């Protein structure tokens, strides 16, 4: 994004081969039991419910659990909705920035606990990671995989300084999972754009054993620009406009970022899937959490176009335009 955001990005539309056919058959979420409200922060930090709600849109969030534990819980729910047994899964992609261990990948524990077979690996593209994982899994259907679990799970409370009001009120824990099945009959990913500008690494990072450091204002500014440009590149490559989008599923970092992006894309507020009011920013989990809650609320119909877009540390960004249904 230093020169022109998107310079290092690929566009999944014009000029690129189509992704293999796929369908989303299951979805599920997991949030830890402990709920922390803005009032809880107000009681011990120099902040207020009004400031947090107005500046971010967050009212409460969940803390606790492990990344693998939350991933397993969300995956079990997704498998149940899909009517698929864990042993039928031949590909597991887990997007996370907060692995349980340095080695092995957290997907190992999830794979073992669920009883999946086949390949499994972690992917880290920060808060854009779930869209990276989804595009990766669908692409791997070309290589012969047929049933995938794509999970976004993070426990950001473990790497957040709870004494720092500028980050403590934002980040939280959770997981979301989708079951994807290969099929020649449905084009799921109509277009995608995955990108990164590594020169922006210093605005949001976390060293080993330390807490996240963030230049909030700069992240905000870059996030709006990256998300708008990435989404516009996918809309343009697929010959669609904001009017065609039934549901916008953005990364849930800040309601003001979501509203600014939606407005620039010509999407009215009613078409955004919002969960951050009760989840906070759960990084990789935020997009599947928002999509799953929308699906549970029956906000999606066969044929609907769903625009997912995320941004995160790196700085990464990722957009996918999906056609819901079979
Ligand atoms: N309560 C009260 N005041 C606060 C708080 C708080 N919790 N946090 C910061 N402030 C203060 C600041 O200290 C500052 O005070 P000052 O003017 O006396 O210096 C004032 O509020 C304004 O601070 P700003 O940073 O200008 O506030 P802003 O309106 O930009 O909101 C926020 C801050 C919410 C962090 C916003 O910039 C933001 O959301 N940025 C994007 C963050 C983000 O998306 N991060 C996730 C990236 S995804 C990933 O990879 C994890």
Our measurement of the CA-to-CA distance between the termini, rounded to an integer number of angstroms, reads 36 Å
By CATH, the architecture of the largest domain is named: 3-Layer(aba) Sandwich
Order of helices and strands: EEEHHEHEHEHEHEEEEHEHHHEE
What's the structural domain tally? 2
Look at the structure and give the mean pLDDT.
94
Ions and ligands:
acetyl coenzyme *A
In DSSP terms, counting alpha (H) and pi (I) runs of 4 or more, how many helices? 10
* CATH homologous superfamily assignment of the largest domain: Thiolase/Chalcone synthase
The unreliable regions are 1-15
Residues in β-strands, percent: 25-35%
**Apparent shape:** globular
What top-tier CATH class of the largest domain fits best? Alpha Beta
What does the radius of gyration come to? 18 Å
């Amino acid at each position: 994004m230093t020169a022109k955001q998107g310079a290092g990005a690929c566009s999944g539309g014009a000029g690129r081969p189509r992704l293999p056919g796929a369908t989303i058959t299951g979805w599920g979420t997991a949030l830890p039991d402990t709920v922390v409200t803005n009032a809880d922060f107000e009681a011990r930090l120099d902040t207020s419910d009004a400031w947090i709600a107005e500046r971010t849109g967050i009212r409460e969030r969940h803390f606790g659990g492990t990344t693998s534990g939350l991933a397993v819980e969300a995956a079990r729910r997704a498998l149940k909705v899909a009517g698929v047994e864990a042993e039928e899964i031949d590909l597991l992609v887990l997007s996370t920035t907060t692995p349980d261990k340095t080695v092995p990948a957290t997907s190992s524990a999830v794979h073992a606990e669920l009883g999946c077979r086949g390949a499994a690996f972690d992917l880290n593209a920060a808060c854009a990671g779930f869209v990276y994982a989804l595009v990766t899994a669908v692409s791997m259907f070309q290589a012969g995989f047929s049933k995938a679990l794509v999970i976004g799970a993070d426990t950001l409370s473990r790497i957040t300084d709870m004494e720092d009001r500028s980050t403590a009120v934002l980040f939280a824990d959770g997981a979301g999972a989708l079951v994807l099945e290969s099929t020649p009959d449905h084009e799921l990913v109509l277009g995608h754009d995955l990108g990164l500008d590594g020169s922006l690494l210093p605005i949001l990072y976390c060293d080993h054993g330390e807490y996240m450091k963030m230049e909030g204002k700069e992240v905000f500014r870059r996030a709006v620009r990256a998300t708008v440009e990435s989404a516009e590149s996918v809309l343009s490559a697929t010959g669609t406009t904001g009017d065609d989008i039934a549901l916008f599923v953005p990364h849930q970092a800040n309601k003001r970022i979501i509203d600014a992006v939606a407005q620039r894309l010509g999407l009215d507020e009613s078409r955004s899937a919002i969960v951050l009011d009760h989840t906070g920013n759960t990084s990789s989990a935020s997009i599947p959490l928002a999509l799953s809650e929308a699906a549970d609320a029956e906000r999606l119909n066969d044929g609907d176009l769903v625009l997912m877009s995320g941004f995160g540390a790196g700085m990464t960004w990722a957009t996918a335009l999906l056609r819901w249904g079979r």
